[in-house]
Each structure stands twice: as C-alpha cells, then as structure tokens.
Design goal:
Length: 383
C-alpha cells in the first residue's frame, strides 16, 4: 500500500514510518517541525540526540535500500495538503501530526487556542482533501484514551448501546477529557465520524494510551534512526520520566497520591497497531474505533515498578497534583479490537525498563534539570 505518515518526524510517527516501510509499504513522511520548535520555546529537547528528518530518511535508504519521500509543510496550509495528497496518491493516511502535550495546552489561553486550532483545523484540512480528491483513502487517526476520561462505568471501544426511556440507539461513547489538548482529540473524533456519515469516509480512530519505550526493531539498526525521548514535565510521559528520574538519582514525581490509572503500551506495539489498522481498512462510511492500549497501571504502581527494577536507591515523592484529575477511580477498558486483528502485546516487563537504563545513562548530561518539575497548573486561569 501507499501510506502517507503525517507527523513523521515525531516520537511515534518516525518509528511507525520505518516499520511500515520495512513491511513493504510505499511510505512517505510529512511534518512542519513544530515539535522541534516547542523544544526551543521550552528550552528542552530529546534526551537521545535525533537527526534532522532529511538525514533520517537518507540513513533509512542506506540501511534498507528504500526511498521515503519527504514533504515539509503545515497541515494548516490546505493547498499544501491537497498538493501532497494529489502527488503521493496514498491509499492510507496515518495522522499523528498534532500538538500532543496536555500541559502545553494548559500553559495559557494562547497555548490552548494554538493546540485546538492546530489540531482541529489541520485534521479538517486532511478530511476535506480525502473527501475531494479520493474518498477511498483510509484515514488512520491517532486519538487518545484520555478522550473518555475516567467514567465510573466500563469504557467501550468508541461506541455504546444506550437504552433511554424505553428506546435504544448506538451512540458515540460519552467523553469527559481532562485538558484542552485531550478535548481537541474529542473534537477531531466527532468531525471524523460526521465525515464518515456525510461523505462515506473510511476512518479508524485509535484511542491510544500513554506510550513508553524508545527503541523499535528498525530504529535499532542505525543510531541516525533513533526516535526522540522526552523527559521534561511538559512533553515527557509518565513511565519514561520515572525511568529517567531514577537514573538521574532524582525522586520520582508522582502527582498526588498516584491513584490515577491510565492505559499504557510499548512503542513496539504502537507501530504494530498502526500496521494492523493500515492493512485491515475500515469500510466506506465506517467510523471504526480501537482502544490502543495493552495494560492499565496506576501512577503509584508505575513508580513502584521502576523503583523495584532500578539497581540502586530510588525515592518516590508525592507532589501536589498540578492537574485536575480524579485521585482514585474505577477504570475498566475494553480493548479487544486490535487483538482480534492479530496484535500480540509486549506487556510491561523488567527487561523493557532495564533496557532504557543504559540509554538514559549515556545521555543524562543532556537533561536540563529546570524542566524536570511541573510548572503548568490546570487551575491557574482561575487565580
Ligand atoms: P510528537 O509531538 O513527537 O509528534 C507529532 C509530530 O507532528 C511532530 O513532529 C510535529 O512537528 C508534527 N506536527 C504537529 N502539528 C503539525 C502541523 N500542523 N503540520 C505538520 N506537522 C505537524 O508526538 P507523538 O508522541 O509522536 O504523538 C503522535 C500522535 O500520537 C499525536 O497525535 C498524539 O496525540 C498521539 N498520542 C501520543 C501518545 C504518547 O504517549 N506519545 C499517546 C497517545 C496518543
Ligand atoms: N504523572 C505523574 N507524574 C509525572 C508525569 C505524569 O504523576 O511526572 C501522571 C499524570 O498526572 C497523569 C498520568 O501520569 O495522571 C499520565 O500523564 P502523562 O503526562 O504521562 O500523559 P498524558 O498527559 O495523559 O498524555 C500522554 C501523551 C498524550 C496522549 C496521552 C494518552 O502526551 O499525547 O494522548 O498520554 S492518555 O493518557 O491515554 O490520554
């Protein structure tokens, strides 16, 4: 298949493009390098050094013999999006290209507006390009488990049968997200479901959990193929951050009591889930939703797991939670769709955690400690 990966310079987009190319798909990448600009803005950066996208693509050609066309531009530029879709003629578009950090979206009004504008309008431009140029294109869109929030009932895969006052219907599962970023994903999901109804679009919305890990079979083949690893309090995600803090000899920063529970998955499963979605397209008019996670852990459990695995003393601190989220709650998620397509999950193991220690050790001098503790507070707009 011909697959266009939007956000192909990012933490997940780059290893996914490599995996798809390695599996024989004609793969192209598109990015506007917004992510590298947030690094400059925040005075932060990837813990592991990463090459420019041009160098990465060239390195992949040397390692695999495969070409990977590269398109540099912004999804907010509709003419650019239409030109790329006409030129590359994808069968599938995998859409990772959004501002993805909840804390970034909660810095202030400007960052909230930027996040929702970038994400919602970029996605609308992609939807229109598909509808007007070739409605056969399958859109594989990265959503997030955080769209659902933490309701006191089981979380279904996108849809729920509701009986109300004696009548029944199949409805989109109700959403209660916890940041303006997570809300942008809810808006995208609703827009795409509408596109499936009015244009007969075929779409897969992947409500992905928190990803951990840094290495895939393809990125391991050459150091120039490495993907980024974020440690800072804005872009770093919880398990990666705890592993990095352990190696640095810093306390693990559990927000609140740590009773908040999240769905998680290994980066090697992310790339495989995308392949499965790409190779098994949704039907025309179908808004298909998968919950892309393999296991659930509370934040406290994640901290204890890292502390037990690290070969040295580790302190676990409980900070005042800068976010607005339930401290303890019910969490039971249905996630069978991708397993039914053939996913064989890598469950979290000591070996995965241990494999990250030397990567962090080698690069720990790159950490800007000022960015380790959380500074963005959800409630600050009220003060
Ligand atoms: P990332 O920030 O590393 O990558 C996103 C890429 O998209 C960046 O390279 C950025 O430059 C690009 N981009 C952003 N806006 C763009 C625009 N308007 N035009 C062109 N390119 C643009 O993020 P990631 O961690 O790789 O996440 C990728 C996707 O997966 C996101 O949509 C995110 O919401 C979702 N996701 C990530 C995680 C996670 O744990 N990292 C978990 C669940 C879902
Ligand atoms: N947390 C801590 N300490 C930390 C960092 C995080 O206790 O040092 C807690 C947070 O309070 C939260 C949980 O860990 O309860 C997860 O936080 P996170 O920063 O790892 O993840 P989140 O903000 O939810 O966002 C990440 C990605 C986002 C993706 C989302 C998937 O950045 O792109 O959408 O994971 S999900 O959580 O399923 O919505």
């Amino acid at each position: 298949m011909r697959v266009l990966v939007l956000g192909g310079d990012g933490y997940l987009g780059w290893p996914t493009a490599l995996h798809l190319s390695d599996c024989g798909h004609e793969t192209a990448v598109l990015d506007n390098f917004a992510r590298r600009k947030y690094d400059e803005e925040l005075g932060s950066g990837s813990l592991v050094p990463i090459e420019d996208l041009e160098v990465r693509v060239q390195a992949w050609k040397e390692v695999s013999g495969k070409e990977m066309p590269l398109y540099v531009g912004d999804l907010l530029d509709a003419d650019f999006v239409y030109r790329v879709v006409r030129e590359f003629r994808p069968d599938t578009i995998v859409h990772f290209a959004e501002q993805r950090a909840a804390p970034y979206s909660m810095i202030d009004r400007e960052h909230a507006v930027y996040t929702q504008h970038n994400n919602v309008i970029g996605n609308l431009n992609v939807m229109y390009a598909i509808a007007e140029i070739n409605p056969e294109i399958h859109l594989v869109k990265l959503g997030t488990m955080g769209e659902y929030g933490t309701p006191n009932i089981d979380i279904e895969e996108g849809w729920i049968e509701i009986e109300h006052n004696g009548r029944k219907d199949r409805m989109l599962y109700p959403k209660k997200p916890g940041s303006f970023y997570h809300l942008s994903k809810v808006h995208d999901s609703h827009n795409i479901e509408f596109g499936c109804r009015i244009w007969g679009m075929r779409a897969t919305d992947l409500n992905q959990g928190v990803v951990y890990g840094q290495t895939t079979a393809q990125t391991a083949r050459d150091s120039r193929l490495a993907t980024r690893l974020d440690y800072d309090a804005v872009f770093g995600t919880v398990l990666n951050r705890f592993i990095i803090q352990a190696v640095l000899g810093q306390p693990l920063t559990v927000y609140g009591k740590g009773g908040q529970t999240r769905g998680m998955l290994d980066i090697r499963d992310t790339v495989e889930c995308i392949r499965l979605a790409v190779e098994n397209p949704a039907d025309r008019g179908e808004f298909r939703v998968f919950n892309q996670m393999t296991e659930s852990f509370s934040v406290q459990q994640v901290a204890e797991l890292v502390a037990e695995t690290f070969p040295g003393p580790v302190q676990i601190d409980h900070l005042e939670n800068p976010r607005w989220e339930l401290a303890e709650h019910y969490y039971n998620v249905k996630h069978t769709g991708l397993v039914e397509l053939g996913l064989k999950p890598h469950l979290l193991s000591d070996t995965l955690i241990e494999s990250l220690f030397p990567i962090v050790e080698e690069n720990k001098h790159r950490v800007n400690m000022e960015n380790m503790l959380p500074k963005v507070k959800w409630a600050s707009a009220k003060n």
